[in-house]
Amino acid sequence: MSVEFFSTWHFIRFSGLLAFFLMTFSVSAGLLSSMTMFKKKKPLMLELHQTSSWIGFLVMLFHMVVLWKDEYVSYQIAEIIIPFMDDYAPVYSAFGIFSFFLFLIVLATSDFFMKKLGRGLWKKVHLLVLPAWVFMMLHGLFIGTDTEQFGIASVYAGSAVLVALLLALRYAEALFQPTKKTP
């Protein structure tokens, strides 16, 4: 009896879930770093935010390479990087591709072009992380072959609740912060 514990499918699903976890962690740390209650921990939160986003992005790249090398479902490179080219699930695959490119834009502008863009434009571009994260979650939910399992579904549900709660707290904090008056 032969049991394959580390099949390509396992690497595909594990890397997808790990990337989702890391990007959820990054979004959460980014939101927390912008809140006044974490003012003293802001450097730590920003470090966690940046580190988890880059590691998550590298895990996304690994996920894409493993998909390309999968022998069970034969993907061409175009199907992995061009939205709607995939025959298996074109819309849900496109969500993953959109997510990848939106995260790439946010990471590139944050680490390489922030000073050239200026803080105002950079902040607007940085907000692309939210649709990127939503696309990533939808991609995993609808194309993942194990999403119906309680543990996996709980990861997605818990992540959605966490990010929604942090967004609501951040929004509420912004509403009640006194505005600075200029003379």
UniProtKB/TrEMBL annotation:
Domain Ferric oxidoreductase: 16-136
Keywords of the record: Membrane, Transmembrane, Transmembrane helix
Membrane-topology annotation of the record: Multi-pass membrane protein
Family matches, as Pfam families: Ferric_reduct (PF01794)
Superkingdom, natural source: Bacteria
Compartments it resides in: Membrane
Transmembrane regions: 12-32, 53-69, 89-113, 125-144, 150-172
InterPro entries: Fe3_Rdtase_TM_dom
Keyword Manganese: no
Protein name per UniProt: Ferric oxidoreductase domain-containing protein
